[in-house]
Specification:
- This protein is mainly alpha-helical.
- Helix content is about 45%, strand content about 0%.
- The protein is extended, with a radius of gyration of 19 Å.
- The chain has a domain at about 65-110.
């Protein structure tokens, strides 16, 4: 198995951050507006901090056929110029929109290592 080619070095990445941040500054009002809107319910009621705790959580398991997952992991991201994560987030947005009858706004908290390949 061949290793992936070396990406941007830490020094180069850190040096690019101020320019990348300046490029994003124009988006601030947009994102503040998005966050100002109340988030719709994802269930039939608002979350209850007494009842809705880890001990009462359930889970759903869905098995995706190989022919679907192979497309997701190979040609779909290439067609859209995106990564698998972006394709999955888009699918989540479509599913939430259909479930809510057209309102696909949903706030998703993503976690990453912080050094995503930005350039």
């Amino acid at each position: 198995m061949a290793l992936e080619p070396v990406g941007t070095s830490y020094r180069a990445w850190a040096g690019m951050l101020p320019e990348l941040a300046a490029d994003r500054a124009g988006e601030l009002a947009l994102w503040q507006g998005v966050l100002a809107e109340p988030d719709g319910l994802l269930g039939s009621r608002a979350l209850d901090p007494v009842v809705d705790v880890a001990g009462t959580a359930g889970s759903v398991t869905v098995e995706v056929p190989a022919e679907v997952s192979q497309g997701l992991l190979s040609w779909v991201p290439g067609v859209w110029g995106a990564g698998v994560e972006e394709v999955l987030l888009a699918a989540l947005g479509v599913a939430v929109s259909q479930w809510r009858g057209g309102d696909g706004h949903v706030l998703v908290d993503l976690e990453g290592h912080g050094r995503e390949q930005l350039v």
